[in-house]
Amino acid sequence: MRPYTGTRRALAMAAWASCVREWREFGRQKLFYVSTLLALALLLTTRLLAERAFGSEGFEANGGGSNFVGYVALGWLALQIAQQGLYSGQGYLRWASQAGVLPHVWATPCPRWIPIVGVTGWEIAQWTVMLGVLAVALLFLPGAAPAGFDPLVIPVFALALIAFWGLGIAFAGVGLAQRQPALASIFVVLIFTMAGSTFPVAMLPWEVRWVSLALPYTYVIDAMRHTLLGTPTIVPLAVELGVLAASAIGGVLGGIWIFNRVANRATRRGLIGLFT
User: Fold this and answer.
1) Average pLDDT, the chain
2) What is the mean pLDDT of residues 69-97?
3) Residues 168, 89 contacting (CB under 8 angstroms)
């Protein structure tokens, strides 16, 4: 194989190679798609039963909108797509280490975060297909269909993916230096729980709501839901878009800087290949 020369084409080939490897590892397994569709059906069924049992009046009063099922099901799956950038890096480094190929990846003359780009691309593609399947299913359920499609959803999703990827690559580096990603994963879950990934932030008491309002990812998630489901925003949409753009730029620059710094430290300490 020809060594990478550092050109844009070579970097794109490196990312594409990791994307193809991910597809060969998981994408050709029919059981994966069957189990995922069953999980989506179970999710949708439980949310429909919850809405019938408890209603959506209190949910709507706290800024969740009138479409409870769409908010939880479609909004949840959309967040799964955006958050693939958070977890793909850790998963790829763990697999490469356990398979014994991480030292070879480290020796490849290209930026060490490039393969994570390809893996993330595959994860986003497969979850996007699942989002489309669920959106079609919601169209046939009374009261569950999305209110409409805002063209802003495309740039909002693109910026959200970039912002989440930047944060994810930073945590991938931290997990690499720790030789296990548990602490980083717990921190990520805490951030997105407080950012309102599964409930409207307005439902929180003021004693803890200020924590959510201080997190930039709260406004990223809020902007995604507003453009996808038409839910009311916490602050004006223009402000949320500004926070979203700043999070994307800062997340990528900061994430790559942290990853490179931690990766170099892990290399000096001889931790490459010890990821558990």
Assistant:
1) 72
2) 68
3) yes
